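User: For a benchmark we're assembling, each entry needs the component sequences followed by a predicted structure for the full assembly. Here are entry 17's components. Please fill in the structure.
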Amino acid sequence: MSENLILTPQQIIRKKAAGEPIQPDDSEMIQSHTIAVLVENSIGAFIRVVNMFSARGFNIDSVTVGATDDPTVSRMNIVTQGNGRIISQVLRQLSRLVDTIEVIDLTDTDFVERELCLLKVCYTKDTRSEILDVNDIFRGKVVDITTKTMTFELRGPSKKIDAFIKMMHAHEIVEVARSGRVAMQRD
Amino acid sequence: MTYDTHTKVHPAASGDALPEERTEITPSTQIMSGAEILLRSLEAEGVKIIFGHPGGAVIKVYDEMHRIKPEFQHILVRHEQGGTHAAEGYAKATGKVGTVLVTSGPGATNTVTGIADAYMDSVPIVVFTGQVPTALIGNDAFQECDAIGITRSITKHSYLVRDVNDLARTVKEAYHIAQTGRPGPVLVDLPKDVLLAEAPFQYPKTVNMRGYTMLDPVLPEKLHRAAQMIGESKRPLFYVGGGAISRNASQHLTDLARYTRIPVTTTLHGLGAFPEDDDLSLRMLGMHGTWWANQAVQHCDLLIAVGARFDDRVTGKLDSWAPHAKVIHIEIDQSCISKNIFADCAILGDVQDVLESLKSLVQPIDTTEWLEEIEAWRQECPLQYSNDGKLHAQGVIEQLRDQTDGDAVVITDVGQHQMWSAQYFRFLHPRTHITSGGLGTMGFGMPAAMGAAFGMREIGSSRPVICISGDGGFVMNAQEMSVAAAHKLPLKLAVINNRFLGMVRQWQELFHRERYSHTDLSDTNPDFVKLAEAHHCVGLRATTPEEAQSIIEEAWKINDRPVLMEFQVAKEEMVFPMVPAGAATGDMITDRITPNSFV
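Assistant: Structure for entry 17:
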């Protein structure tokens, strides 16, 4: 999507009034975006980024942060939603912060994404094998087991984790911990 | 999806090594306290004046100030909010960075309104706040507050200095950030132990911030496209904001507009960017702009926005604003482009450079018909007020203008008098109109005027400084009058007293069926003449146009202290024309007609 295709509310209303078609992808279609932000490795930089989202009314679906190979630089991976205009504002506002070094919207590029999930579920003699079958299908790992519960570790794209949790809902889930999405562009 | 304009170049990725700046310690490098490093850094930064108020956390700074007698002047304000507004007034009048120094806790929180005001209006100020010792941070210590946290969303950037060795570099960066790009406030939080600790002092010559890089040069294609759009237009219009003034582009704009014969309308903050006595000036646009400027916006086929951000007080209802216009947007802040109004041609860059480059690419265009059309609108609905022989705020503003031939620095507060000043004063020069536009801070006027007056004195300008305020706003920071008096500033303080919160009253009359809830100030207003006298100023009062003329003349004879002129006017006066909030710009109210349909 080029910069010129992002419509403002004014344009959308005018186009509608004129009976012109509005392409769904360039106006109001809300899409999930994965944005990588390189920031100075400090708590202040992280808070400024997150604060910008809340102060300007943008969504955050998930956010992760960690140092990169350069210990003075942190990489934040932010998953947010919005139409083209909102995402364009998100990117511009992010770039504007003094502590952001680089802002990359990965969404329409070829990128790999991974998320880590730990899930603890109760089992009984009757459900044990079924639960382990599901885990096998998703290629998860059992990382802990007691007489009542099993804990699984699962890696993969966020959608796979969503599906895994959905399957486990058939049983008694005790707790779920998800890391949030990390992503990187392929070369 | 590629957003080239958003991607910052990561120096490591581009193969350049990150240059590390280290303070070179030579035998001659002096060891000094953090407090002295702060003062020496301000001197090195060329600071001439700071507005401050001492307290426990910054007592060491004040002690060092007493000892070393720095090259700059410290103005003891009577409230930290007054200090921040004074710094804003100074910054806007001179184009330099305003500096504020306050203590921790309440000292810091009192600056918040001024910081928010500077953020909204892109005013370069640096605010130094004291902080409890680092070991006590988070401990709910005496006079502790999270100044960084409180101001995070109203500062361009902020710093907590944890190590005295970082102090000089931080000051350098703070001033750099405040005044480059789109200007704004920067806060530096200084824990007491950092001010007490000692370190070698050397002020860095350059800054190195990989996340804060300068804009790429404007692509020639963009400039050619803009020039082509201008050449093809029949009804072009310049829409000029505060960015043209803060980047000192008034002359470039004036040259370009006169050369191409394109008319100019300005925002509230753009007043003065283009001389309002020029035939091409349409004066201010927007909610209380002129009828003809707003009509021109509604009928133009090309809008050239210069350093403006399409604020809601300018556009009103977005979908019916400038319906026939293609837009060229010349702007330094990428986040303003296509935020509210789509820019057909967005030019991200320094306004001054862009206007200068454009001038060599465009030809004069024939706008005779277009200008005639605008002239007809001007005749149709001129700015006017009753000439019933009574004292009117608009009349007072015209008298003040005539007294100075329009060559004065006018600082206004917020409300009806602010709009009347914008409509009736006729601004001819940049940096002669200073007001709180974005945040709309009542209480801004008096201290900002004081700051501007200090600025005028510093640059040796004899331009008179006039504060036009209402009775509501003036009281909010009236305490700074005594500071202005102590420094013998020849301020002219015009208080337009209608014994009401006039602008709120106007909305109550127009949109709330005349329910005047809590806007009558007649029981709580002070005696303004006595208030002035109590603050070592001269107080004068007028109730008729003749008295007004005589007190203005009297006031202009007094040059060794501020003079407060109270002008008592009728409470019923309203600001017209007006586009009701959220209404279409075409639907201006020009007088008291059935406005309840807009409720």
